[in-house]
Each structure stands twice: as C-alpha cells, then as structure tokens.
Amino acid sequence: MNLVRFAAARLVARCGLMLLAAAAPDAGAAVVARVDGDAIGSASLAVLVRYARLTDRAASGRDVLDAVIERRLLARHALATYPVDALFPERRVAFAPDVAADERLVAVLRAVYRDETDAALTVEAARRATVARADVDADALRAALGDPARLRVEYALDDASRDRAAALVLLRYRMPGGDAGALTLADLYARQNVQGRMALHNLDVEFLDRQVDARLAALLVVDDARRRLGRTAVAELRRALADQELERALGERYGLGADLHDDSAYLAGLRARVTADDIARWYDAHRERFRRVDAVRVRHIRLADEATALRVAHALAADGSNFGELARRHSIAPDGAGGGDLGWIDASAQRDWFGALAFAQPPWRNGAPVREPVKADAPAAWEIVRVDEQRVGWHAKDSETVRYLASRDIAEQRARAAFAALRDRLRVAAKIAVAGDTAGGGE
Predict the structure, then answer these.
(1) pLDDT tens figures, 271-323
(2) Taking the complete model, does pTM exceed 0.85, yes or no?
(3) Which key words are in the record (predicted)?
(4) Is the dihedral of CA 246, 252, 254, 256 positive or negative?
(5) Pairwise CA distance, residues 190 & 282, whole Å
(6) Residue 30: which H helix or E strand, with range?
C-alpha cells in the first residue's frame, strides 16, 4: 500500500461516517487532506464518494480520496508543463475546458442530489430567479453576430462582434442564495461547442432560448449546492472535477486516450525506438496476439430475395444439422444440389466480398442473411453463410503485420509505464498531509 493510500485508510477508519454524512454549509469543509497546501474538505469528498457509489457500490472513501490527491498532482503538472491549447487541442470545436468543468459539476450534483435538485429546478423557481429576460429575435442576433451568409474560416467572434455580443444582455438573475448576475450573448457564445456556435450564427432563436434556460437551470443547481454544502465545498468539488479533465488530457499527451488509434507524437517517438529484438521478444511472449485464420471450410445458401432469405434463416437449426437440406431445397447457386458446400477457401479469397463475409463469420454459427453489394435499386441475391471449421496459423515473426502490431503494443506499454513513473515521482516530491499524517518527500 503506498503512503497516500495508507494515510487515507487511517482517515477513513476514524472518520468514515463523517465523509458520508450530510454536511451543514461550510461546517463540512473540515480539511481531510492537503496537497502542497491545497485543501481537500470532507464535504466535497463526501459528494465524490456518493457519486462513485452510483456506479460502484463498493467504492470506498479511501480510494476516492487517493484518486483526488493523485489527480491534483497530475493536473498541476499538466498545467505547469503544457500550454492549455496543447492539452486540449480539440477546444476549437469542443467545449472549452472551464465550460466542461462547469457542466461536469452540474451533472455530478444532479446525480448525487437528484430529488433536491429536481425541487430546485421548478418553473416557479426559475421564474423567481429571473429578474429580467430579453426577447431576442433573429434581427438582434444578426446585429450582434453578423450575416449568417458571410463566409467564415471558423465559427468565432471577432473583436467587434464580441463587443456587440457582450452588450446584449439575455438574462438578469438573482439566485435564492442571494447571488445576482447577468448572462450576455458573449457569455453564452463562449459556452458553446462548434455546433452551438453554428446554430447561433445561423440565427436559431429557439436554440438560443434553450441555452438560456439550460444556463439558468445550471446556476440554480450550483446555488442549491452552495446553500447545502457551502461555497468552499462546491469550489473544491469543481476543482476536483477539473483536475480529472486535466489528468485525462495529460494521459492523452502520453497516447493513453480511449482510442489508441488516435496517434500521438509521444507514442510515435516510442514506436520509432522499438528494435527488432524488442519485437522478437514481444512476439515470443504474446504469440496468440498474432494468430490469424488461414482458411475456412464454408457452406452457403443463396436466396433470390430477402423474404425467402429470412424464412430460410428462421428454419435453420442452430447446430447446422439441416443446413445442407435447406440449401438443396432453396439455394439458387449451382452448388445448392451439393448442400451448398464450398469446401476450404483460403485467406486470398478475402479480396472479394463473399470471401470477406466468410472470414468475418464466427465458426459454428449460421450467419444472418446478407444482401450482395449491388446498387440499391438493382436485383440482388442474399447469402447465408456457415463456417464449419477454421485453419489457423500465425503471422511470421519478421512480417510487417507483426512489426506494426508489436511496435504499437510495446510503445503503449512503455507509455503506460512512463505515466505511472511520473505519477510516482509527483507523489514522492509532494507534501501530502492526510488527517494529521504526512506522506511524501517534500519539505
């Protein structure tokens, strides 16, 4: 058990009930941990524990606190090491990082306090919170954002349109907790992804109204949480969720995103340093990774139309015992008289559509009827394929397929190891104090 986890375990053993109790405003902001002086309070941690348990009933306060501490360290490192644009290269088309953090905060609060936030989001509550709301039409949007027919390199505001949008107040509000403010078109524009910005430039007044409603609802949720938990706890919770986004962005810099086919410069550099000896060792240790199907023994039934194909498919026994009989009775292929048996076909057959279909079919199952790939309005046959056997082999150790797959796997493994080593270094260098215990190598 690492030092952070050990200290967190001691905290939860002593104060576990405190973490799950409903906290009075700011009374629940008792500090349960500090990371280089940054406080983590019990109230914000309690919300994160409850949120984690919505999907994992076994989630513990110890594990959640450890994750919060780890993400704080990684988030600070990310911001100190990379420009925001490098961490969030998608921000030109996606939601800005601060907007994403706000949206995540509202989503977590609504999930954890579902009944309470539903009560806070009534039509009457929204009416009472609204001091004034502008009736914006398409002409007002055009005056602020410009002609929708104008050619744009990207959907963004220039200085002049930003000033006009900032002058157009859409909503003045006063929250039940006393906070008051105004929502301008510039504010709302900044909270959009590229699809939202396009809708505004296209003068979609209904979209604008929905976005104003959504922003007012979000403000009411946060106001309700501040009155329930206190401002400090809500601010800490938002930071913890922003840290999580920064951790994800930092991981993607290491090529550890959800879609590993999205290339990264870091992974590309690691792949370039993979040697032939590395690949040979990886091949020997992961030979099953390079398994391939060299040939399949196939039967098929070719039908003249979809209705017949569906009827025959329904009549097939799951074990294929009547496949040959139905082929002889219904198939329009010349081999139908022989039960549709095509014998063995090798991997080179994948170059045509039927061979690709046969190699894609799991063995020992009746395939679903598939229409031959001709124009939609052209007459087409339908095929039912069954693979009775596969002949397997392995890609050669020196093949391009092995080089590509192995180098990618090795690079990914090394990236994960590098990211784990970074995490460990940050822990050792930090001053982490948990419930009176101190862990870490900092002074």
Answers:
(1) 999 999 999 999 999 999 999 999 999 999 999 999 999 999 999 999 999 99
(2) no
(3) Isomerase, Rotamase, Signal
(4) positive
(5) 48
(6) none
